[in-house]
Write a structure and sequence with these properties.
Layout lengths: L2 E9 L17 E6 L5 E5 L5 E2 L5 H11 L6 E3 L19 E3 H9 L4 H12 L2 H14 L19 E2 L1 H12 L2 H7 L3 E4 L2 E4 L4 H4 L3 E9 L3 E10 L2 E8 L4 H15 L2 E5 L4 E8 L5 E6 L3 E4 L5 E8 L3 E2 L7 E9 L2 E10 L7 H19 L1
Parallel strand pairs: 14-18
Antiparallel strand pairs: 1-17, 2-3, 2-12, 4-7, 5-6, 8-9, 10-11, 11-12, 13-16, 14-15, 15-20, 17-19, 19-20
Amino acid sequence: MKRVLVVLLTVLCLGVPAGASAPGDSASAAIVVDAATGRVLYGHDTEVERPIASITKLMTALVAVERGPGLATELTIRPEWTGIEGSSLYLRAGETLTVEELLYGLLLVSGNDAAEALAAGCAGTVDAFLVWMNEKAAELGMEHSRFSSPSGLEDEGNYSTAADMARLARAVLENETLQRICSTRSASVAGRVLVNHNKLLWRYEGCAGLKTGYTDQAGRTLVSCAVRDGQTLIAVTLNDGDDWADHAALLDYGFETYPNETVVAGGAILGTAPVSGSVTPLVLLAAEEDFVYPLAEGDTAEWQLTLDEALSAPLSAGQKVGTVSVTVNGAPAGSVALVCAAPAANDRAEAQSLWERLWTGLTGWLF
């Protein structure tokens, strides 16, 4: 049975820099999320379902990488994949491109033809690929999303929310290949020079992608991320006529108001616990690693130690024996492993045997 060992409270009241008041924006829906923890730092109308245009291609890219035949696989372009209206990689029937080259065309210049080629080339048909896309959405908990197009060109039946797109962006950023491609400003691919449509890569310091979008019905849509002092934030806006400026303001607000703080330091002694079978009565306990979380002024972080079971020797330094659970403002925020900070040898029986021998010798000499 697990045992709650001790509860320790850490109250963090951080100073918020001047000018860090909640931002305004022009979007129909907006959200700012910490990429590592998923904490929502700002948002409005985050669960309203709306057409999303070409930011759909983030899901297309993720599914193509995870379920496709491999980045180096060559696909021969079919006539039906060419001549797609809107933004284009200008594919030609009969030419051959790798999956990775098509991903660059998909994410840098938002090629609708690249989306068709990836979908049909990876799954056999576009319809089969759409099934994969919706399965992945369900897996990510995107409960208010449906994908009916690999490109986002058709708005009918293709929709999501700001919150769901932030969930998708977190998954995309966990993929090193997509992270690399989304952050690329320009590339030479299959005889074409591609320049990323995301102007924030040049305009906002630390921007690392992700994807732009536009249709008449959806308006301007944008998913962006930026890195500052080791912290990565994601911003999403839907139907935003001033998205470049809004994203800069949203990201600034997130970084300034919710900086990363170390709630629990890895290796720091957090408490002790009794141990049986050792002459050492107590073992020191520590967090295996840092627990870092974005915190604003007035946030209260609490941590609790839980042992997996009663401790008995032998125990080695660094051995996992429980969990450090963290809450912020009373809500679960995450956990790290609880480990022994020092060893505890199985030496009590040996020590008792030695004492018994000494006592026997002493009593024999006296009597």
